[in-house]
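Below is how a single chain appears once it has passed through the pipeline. First comes the sequence as given, then the structure the pipeline wrote out for it. We keep one example in the README because the format questions we get most often are answered faster by looking than by reading.
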Amino acid sequence: MEAQILSRYADRPLPRYTSYPTAPHFSAAVGRDTYRDWLLAVPADSSASLYLHIPFCRSMCWYCGCHTTITARDAPIAQYLAALHREIDLVTDALPGRMKAKHIHFGGGTPTLMKPEQFGLLMDRLRARFDLAADAEVAIEIDPRTLEVAMIDALAAGGVTRASLGVQSFDPLVQRAINRVQSFDETKQAIEGLRAAGIAAVNFDLIYGLPKQTVESCIETAVQALELAPDRFAVFGYAHVPQFKLHQRNIQQSELPNGAARFAQSEAIAAVLVGADYVRIGLDHFAKPDDELARAFEAGTLHRNFQGYTTDACDTLLGFGASSIGRLPAGYVQNAVLIGEYQRRISAGELAVAKGRGFAPEDRLRGAIIERIMCDFRVDLDEVCGRFGGDSRQLSATIALDPLIRDGIAHRDKGIVTLADAARPLVRVLAAAFDQYLDESPAHHSRAV
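Resulting structure:
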């Protein structure tokens, strides 16, 4: 792609489109009473996916954009888990019946800071309140630096099938610049322990756009990571939002690469992974050809939610824990972000939802269009509008595709809009053309590349 065109778009602040409408457009107009009504309206014979947020770490990684807090003690974690158990009961009591669940994801923070017995009890509570499928995918995010053998055994006994390990970069200079020193051997030891326990599916998270990072160091990290043969990679661009994440002020804006440099880093990592026969999926994922994510991409059945790209087509995602976001047929909900406020609400016997967003008819239509663009790099506007009762001609009048077509980013053939192959890192730019709520403020979003 021409450098001039790339520079015009790469630094634009845009959503990651893991939801639509996006989280900055949630409001307090949706609260606990609305959530209760929405839960009651969920079809009793439907399935739910579950997300559990564990917002604790032992040290702060300066690049982190997650809702987490640092604790050297275990007591705050135990207190929080008690509230989490109670929330599971409150939510399931509000549902019209016992629901099936096939996808469970533990995110953080560092979920594996739980004691092994605490994780076992939490899985027991989920099995007591939901019908977990025999082949349910149970995924958990892991910091290899704090993973202990006893916890690996507990994960296996609890039914975990997939582990997602934070790697970010193996470059010592980068690691020191982001306050996350993690050796290759630590990562290798964690992988070997998980696989020996029967947890065969492994994901790695890598990040580009970090301070001290170069194209060469990105390539070296990708090559090293391939030695451990994970099933999937997620390769994210660092989002620098120090006005929201105060610890990011330890990273100076002047030390960060610009859009063109970030593009070069991301493409260098992609070249290494594709060269090793991983399938490039969507904006930032890579998977082995026989992985179900790669198969879904090839079949056009890939989906996108707050955990990124997924095979999960479930309409109901129940979020548990402080700051967690759920999706119901009627709209999105988000729990209170602060741990203390979350625990206060749960202790009072209240649902912890603090804000959300109900779906307007056009939200469903535009959300489906954006999801197909993010997943497939193309969308058939006539087909999607037909499913949602929309008018593709009327919709087309509200979007500004001509500049993107002129710049070679997108093509249009009647009702089919396709992202140019060379412009795939700019997929969020095309998706944003269909976002009627887009806030151009750089305070809310990360760079397009």
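Residues 204 and 248 are 22 Å apart (CA to CA).

See the next section for the split statistics.
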